[in-house]
Each structure stands twice: as structure tokens, then as C-alpha cells.
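RECORD TYPE: inverse folding
INPUT: C-alpha cells
STRUCTURE:
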């Protein structure tokens, strides 16, 4: 097929980005917004030898899984990819995506996966789940200041203050900001010229506490924000308002937040809880965006770890210590490792405000910190036959990893294999790298015991997975 050709095709599969896949005489078409089960007319926009990307022109016969999107901007907006697919079908797609990767990349056979895969954990109400949103500001074609979301793969702003994934209060906050900008002539930032003041509004909402944070990212300082007190006055009328701040960002960059923040009103953070643990969240801290599902994700990780209170646990890629503190409640001691120093500051503070004393945190790369400790406290001590020195830290009963999309570094996997923890709990946001890493671990003494996908991001193609690996022959320590 060639560019601008049109064709009618039945959608028989879903691509990794949620696009429908159809075949025309053996030629594969990827069609955004087409749902599996649809028959559609599509126009080829980009043609390669064996496959092409096509635009959905007409739905000839809708799929039984096709639903009316909740948001009128669902197709244009870059935030959601599969809002037109029934939620049930979304969950089946995500489960299949994890399974497919474990089979193809991990080399696990179907029979084993039938045994170890547990049903995906979805949401009862898959909308309004996000506790954080970052809205860009700009001008529309008529020169009006607008805020909303970027259209898919562009920086064109779709004016929409009412995202279906966010909380209802977002809209009120954004309208107050827009009104303030209009009244006092405060300009939105223009990416092309680098001029203008307001770049983004970060809004965070504590689902358990009802506390609200607003942080304006400005191309300047607090002094440039004329009549800022008028803005804070209005925002304070909203129930739950706890923290209003600005974050200066004068760089010509796609990075949203500045490197610092300054409080305009209230305190610099909000508090929220997950599974009974309190977290203080400042504008620059990382915090999971779907707290209801995060609790399910961490509870699954905790269940898989099967802690009795006697275990030494390492939590690698620990961020602000969310999983670490969850585990600490049931373990003897927990060690968290994270590359971002500010996240470790947060982790230590979170341990402190929860009165958790059996958690210790280290800044550094997981693939450097763990091998170093193992060499210093385990390997050498064992070689010197110095049992006293082979202390807690070199030993691990359970190792939990929750790496970014690229998965675990090989040096880390090698060390895990050497340390031989009885269990490895792998939390993953990318099932392809997960499958690659599981293959390595299962080729080196581990067995895949349990797998469960958790839907942290309904309406998008992303899916989290928790896996339990168990050592085939755990070292039985003989104390004589
Ligand atoms: N477990 C945390 C965070 C998971 S996100 C939670 O659930 O909240 C992955 C984390 O890994 C991020 O915080 C990132 O900063 C960190 N990270 C990335 N590369 C790393 C590395 N090589 N070593 C340690 N941490 C790393």
C-alpha cells in the first residue's frame, strides 16, 4: 500500500500503544483510535514495506467493545489512548500484553503462565483517579489565554479544564488562575519566544486527607507575579487548600518543574496516606499518581514477600521509600536504595513521621550500592570465615526491585544471583524489560511463582506488574 491509499479492514489486534491493527492482503496497518472488533475505513499516512500507519476515516461496523468516550477530547488529547475501549477489554488487553511479553521475551511457556498468572487488579471506577496534574498555559489562535492538555505528540494546547482522569477541583483551580491572569494582565509563557510568565500549574490532591496543593511554574520569580495575594486569596476559598507555591523555571526546556520552589501561602507540602502510612509530598517530590491502585500494588508486593517479622529486606529503586515503609511494618529490617538524593531525604523524613525505625536508606545506583555492600559485608567476610562480619546488610531474605522502564542493570541482577535471597519480588512498569530480567534470574536459580498485573493507569496503555520469584534451593543455614 502507499501513502493516501484508503482501505477497509477488520481490526483484529491491538498494538503496544493501544492502536488497532488490521491487515489488508497481508499488509499490516496500525490505526490509532480503532478498537479491536471494529471494521473501519482507514487512510494510509505513512507507508513502509510491510506495514503502515493509517488514519481512522470511518467506523463501518463498531466493535462490541467500543464505548462512547467520557471526555469529548479523548481522541485528540495525548493523555488517554484507549478511552474508546470498554474498561473490561482494556484490562484483558493489559493482561495479554504482560503474558505475551513473558512468553515471547521471557521464554516462559503457556502452561506455566496459566498456573502463575493471577487476574489483573482493575479499578471499580476507572475515572477521576489521578491525584496529580500538570496543566500547561498558552494562547489560542485568537490570543486568549488557555490551559488544558497537549494534543498527542505535539505542544498544541487543547483548552480543557475538566480532565476525566483528574479530580473535580482541578477545574475550579484553573478557572481561578485564568481569571486572575485576565484581570491582572499576567501572561502565559510562550515556548517559541521564551517570553511570558505562567508556564504550568501543578495541582496535587490528597485523596485521604482532602488537602490541595497548587504550584505555579513561572518563567521568573515570585516578584514578577503581580498581585499574587489576589490569587492566593481566591484559591484559599477552596476547601482543603493547604499549599500554594511557585517554582521558578526560566530555562528553554521541556522539563516542567523548576529546581526549587517558594511558598506563597500555607505550607510547602500536603500530606496523604497509602495503606496507613503518611507521606509528606512537596511540589518536587515523586509520588504515585493513582493512590487507590498503588495501595493494591504495594499490598500485592507485600503479600508476595510473605514477611514474618524476621526478614532482612532490600528495596532497590525505592524512590521516596513508599514500598520500603510498607515492608518495614512486617520485616526485621529494610534497606532502601535510590539514585535521587532528594527522594532519599523524603524517604528518611517519611520514615521519621511514621515512627519507623527499622528502615535505612542509601543514595546511589542500585547496581553499585548493592554489589559494594555485598563485597564489603558478605563475600569478603564469608571468605575470611568471619561470621560476625557477615552481618545483616550483606544478607537478604527478600529483595524487592521497582526499576524505571529500562529494567534492572545486569550488574545488579548478577549480585542478586550471588546473594541468593529466598525471594525476589519484581515490581515493573514495563513488561518487556521485566520479561528480559526474569529470563536471566530464572536461568540462574530462580523460579517464577506468581505474577499479577495491576492497572495503575486506566484509559492509557500502561500497566504495572508484580512478580514473585523464589530460589529453587534456598541455602539452608546450618548453625552448629
Ligand atoms: N519504588 C518507588 C519508585 C519507583 S520508580 C515507588 O513505588 O514510589 C523508579 C525509581 O528508580 C525512581 O525513583 C528513580 O529515580 C530510581 N532510579 C532510576 N535509576 C536508578 C538506579 N540506577 N539506581 C537506583 N535508583 C534508580
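DESIGNED SEQUENCE:
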Amino acid at each position: 500500500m502507499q501513502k493516501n491509499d484508503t482501505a477497509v479492514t477488520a481490526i483484529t489486534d491491538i498494538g503496544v500503544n493501544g492502536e488497532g491493527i488490521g491487515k489488508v492482503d497481508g499488509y499490516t496497518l496500525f490505526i490509532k483510535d480503532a478498537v479491536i472488533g471494529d471494521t473501519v475505513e482507514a487512510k494510509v499516512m505513512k507507508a513502509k514495506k510491510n506495514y503502515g500507519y493509517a488514519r481512522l476515516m470511518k467506523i463501518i461496523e463498531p466493535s462490541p467493545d467500543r464505548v462512547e468516550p467520557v471526555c469529548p477530547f479523548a481522541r485528540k488529547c495525548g493523555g488517554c489512548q484507549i478511552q474508546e475501549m470498554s474498561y473490561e477489554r482494556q484490562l484483558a488487553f493489559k493482561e495479554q500484553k504482560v503474558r505475551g511479553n513473558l512468553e515471547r521475551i521471557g521464554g516462559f511457556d503457556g502452561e506455566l503462565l496459566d498456573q502463575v498468572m493471577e487476574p489483573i487488579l482493575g479499578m471499580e471506577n476507572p475515572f477521576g483517579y489521578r491525584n496529580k496534574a500538570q496543566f500547561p498555559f498558552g494562547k489560542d489562535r485568537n490570543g486568549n489565554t488557555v490551559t488544558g492538555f497537549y494534543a498527542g505528540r505535539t505542544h498544541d494546547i487543547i483548552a480543557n479544564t475538566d480532565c476525566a482522569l483528574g479530580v473535580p477541583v482541578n477545574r475550579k483551580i484553573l478557572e481561578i488562575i485564568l481569571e486572575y491572569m485576565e484581570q491582572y494582565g499576567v501572561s502565559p509563557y510562550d515556548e517559541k519566544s521564551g517570553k511570558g510568565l505562567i508556564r504550568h500549574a501543578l495541582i496535587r490532591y490528597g485523596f485521604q486527607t482532602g488537602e490541595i496543593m497548587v504550584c505555579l511554574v513561572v518563567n521568573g520569580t515570585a516578584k514578577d507575579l503581580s498581585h499574587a495575594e489576589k490569587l492566593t486569596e481566591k484559591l484559599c476559598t477552596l476547601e482543603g487548600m493547604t499549599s500554594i507555591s511557585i517554582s521558578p523555571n526560566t530555562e528553554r526546556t521541556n522539563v516542567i518543574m523548576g529546581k526549587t520552589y517558594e511558598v506563597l501561602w500555607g505550607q510547602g507540602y500536603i500530606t496523604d496516606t497509602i495503606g496507613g502510612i503518611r507521606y509528606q509530598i512537596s511540589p518536587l517530590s515523586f509520588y504515585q499518581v493513582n493512590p487507590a491502585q498503588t495501595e493494591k500494588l504495594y499490598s500485592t508486593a507485600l503479600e508476595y514477600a510473605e514477611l514474618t517479622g524476621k526478614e532482612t529486606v532490600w528495596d532497590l529503586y525505592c524512590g521516596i521509600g513508599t514500598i520500603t515503609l510498607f515492608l518495614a511494618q512486617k520485616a526485621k529490617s529494610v534497606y532502601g536504595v535510590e539514585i535521587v538524593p532528594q527522594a532519599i531525604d523524603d524517604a528518611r523524613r517519611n520514615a521519621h513521621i511514621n515512627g519507623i525505625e527499622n528502615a535505612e536508606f542509601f543514595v546511589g545506583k542500585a547496581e553499585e550500592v548493592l554489589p559494594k555492600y555485598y563485597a564489603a559485608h558478605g563475600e569478603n567476610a564469608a571468605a575470611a570465615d568471619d561470621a560476625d562480619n557477615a552481618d545483616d546488610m550483606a544478607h537478604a531474605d527478600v529483595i524487592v526491585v521497582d526499576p524505571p522502564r529500562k529494567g534492572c542493570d545486569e550488574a545488579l541482577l548478577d549480585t542478586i544471583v550471588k546473594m541468593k535471597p529466598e525471594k525476589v519480588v519484581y515490581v515493573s512498569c514495563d513488561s518487556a524489560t521485566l520479561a528480559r530480567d526474569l529470563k536471566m534470574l530464572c536461568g540462574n536459580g530462580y523460579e517464577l511463582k506468581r505474577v499479577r498485573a495491576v492497572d495503575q493507569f486506566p484509559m492509557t496503555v500502561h500497566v504495572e506488574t508484580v512478580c514473585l520469584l523464589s530460589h529453587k534451593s534456598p541455602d539452608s543455614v546450618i548453625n552448629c
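NOTES: DSSP finds ten helices and 22 strands in the chain.
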